[in-house]
Design brief:
about 500 residues; alpha+beta; six-stranded mixed beta sheet; 27 strands
Length: about 500
């Protein structure tokens, strides 16, 4: 039996196929730049056209093109159509997906199960989930799809086995860029890798970035050639496509070329120009990411930043995230969500008899996630959100009992067999090498990432660390057991002062 995984991003649908017991494969027509079937619909006066053909009409017939129906996915009218009738956003989504699946069939693809990896914004709250998932189930029923599951796109993406993998002991901050917005998700593992926090940044999608880059590159083209790309919608559309190709290719250099009936025009460009032009967009994403991470109770140093292929193509984003304190940054291959969805279908999901029983997952088994190595225990530093600088802690408290953090060097927390400064409860004696280190340096107390020792050989010489302040909590888990270590600052008492005299 074969399973078809679909990455349902309006920036470009991607499909992967997997036979039972085999690794998934990205389908050729959806590979490469990951934008083979973007979420565009165009009415040419006679009928609707979808995907790339529709996208290529955007600057030529803008009033007849709709590119937000996948984002909206409601019964509201789309304002695109003729004869006095505008199909709803959900109708456009139905015809869009109908043509996509028909195209897959014409290319010879067959499947027994379908798993959809859907944008996190579809699952941001119960009301939205009920509406969006209900419409998707209705579309699947109309198309007679053997639907086996619906997965949060971030959860499906971390299951892609083609990438470099990540440390499962550390939470993940995943960034995904769609046409009209950017999705930020934080995932962490207990019994399952689950989405813990989510934020959608509107008006921060690839279209906004591409339109800005097209305008700045168009101005350079005008200064260089004295030719205005805005003179004709077809020419502007061609220039937009070239900008998109330059952006997604990752090439350091590119040559823009426009041919007219009179002559040919060209402009050499460098990626450094894209980085400079995208600075305001990247700054906006960076601020949104920092606010999201801190409001979720984390510090950048304690997370692994995971970028989808679409997010990684944003010029300068990786460098900005490093400047913001993210020490571990992983780039996913194109179609990671489709790959993970296809694998889930081939390994553990079955088609239910009733569409109403199709599971909707915002968590995946830990063994499904693509990990660099497995740790029998996990430690995670939780910062206080929205609070300014705080004093360095003097005590570590477990189960109401405080232990002074003495000395100027290292302070350890772990099982009794590791002979730590602070001994954890007995249930943490089973894991091997359960030991978390804190160290004093530059007038601060630092939490040393327990994965740093495993990754030190290939990473930077400085250990992965985060400053520990009063009020922070260190959560340590092993199997079903967990314990919180609270860090507190205790001022010297007058009694202690008298005693010292």
């Amino acid at each position: 039996m074969t399973s078809l995984g679909i990455e349902l991003s309006d920036a470009g649908l991607v499909a992967a196929i997997a036979a039972d017991g085999e690794e998934p494969k990205i389908l050729p027509e959806a590979a490469g730049r990951g934008a083979a079937w973007p979420g565009f619909a165009y009415h040419d006066g006679k009928r609707f056209r979808f995907g790339r053909d529709a996208a290529d009409a955007w600057f030529v017939q803008p009033r007849q093109v709709c590119n937000n129906f996948m984002e909206k996915l409601t019964h509201e009218p789309s304002q695109v159509g003729t004869n006095g009738r505008s199909p709803s956003f959900s109708e456009l989504a139905y015809y869009f997906l109908k043509e996509y699946f028909e195209q897959l069939g014409r290319d010879g693809t067959t499947w027994d199960r379908v798993v959809l990896a859907i944008p996190g914004a579809y699952l941001k709250d119960e009301a939205t989930e009920e509406e969006k998932v209900g419409l998707l189930l209705g579309i699947a029923g109309e198309l007679k799809l053997p639907l086996a599951g619906i997965m949060d796109l971030s959860c499906a993406s971390i299951c892609d086995g083609r990438g470099p993998g990540f440390n499962p002991a550390l939470p993940i901050a995943l960034v995904d860029v769609h046409l009209h917005g950017t999705d930020l998700s934080i995932l962490s593992a207990e019994r399952r890798f689950a989405r813990r926090s989510f934020l959608h940044l509107p008006l921060a999608g690839s279209l906004q970035l591409l339109k800005h880059l097209t305008a700045t590159m168009g101005n350079r083209f005008l200064r260089h050639t004295a030719f205005d790309i805005l003179a004709d919608g077809h020419i502007e559309q061609t220039f937009f496509r070239e900008t998109e190709e330059f952006l997604l290719s990752g090439a350091e250099e590119y040559r823009f070329q426009i041919n007219t009936s009179r002559r040919a025009y060209d402009l050499p460009a460098k990626r450094a120009q894209l980085v400079a032009d995208a600075e305001s967009y990247v700054t906006s994403l960076s601020r949104g990411m920092q606010t999201f991470v801190h409001s979720s109770g984390f510090a950048p140093e304690t997370l692994t930043a995971v970028l989808t292929h679409r997010a990684a193509s944003v010029p300068g984003l990786r460098a900005r995230l490093r400047d913001d304190g993210f020490r571990r940054i992983v780039k996913l291959p194109p179609g990671a969500g489709a790959w993970g969805a296809a694998r889930a279908g081939a390994s553990r999901l079955e088609v239910p008899e009733d569409l109403a029983e199709v599971p909707v997952e915002v968590a995946v088994p830990v063994q499904d996630a693509h990990r660099t190595f497995a740790m029998p225990w996990r430690a995670q530093l939780a910062k206080i959100a929205g609070v300014g600088p705080r004093p360095m802690p003097t005590h570590a408290i477990v189960d109401g009992v405080g232990t002074p953090i003495k000395g100027n060097g290292r302070f350890t927390i772990g099982s009794q067999f590791a002979a730590p400064d602070l001994t954890l409860p007995d249930q943490f004696n089973a894991p091997e090498n359960c030991l978390v280190g804190l160290m004093r340096d530059a007038g601060k107390l630092w939490y040393v990432d327990p994965a740093a020792a495993e990754e030190r050989g290939s990473g930077p010489e400085d250990p992965m660390r985060a400053a520990v302040e009063a009020g922070d909590r260190l959560v340590i888990r092993s199997g079903d057991s967990s314990v919180e270590v609270l860090f507190a600052h205790c001022s010297p008492t007058s009694a202690a002062g008298n005693k010292s005299e």
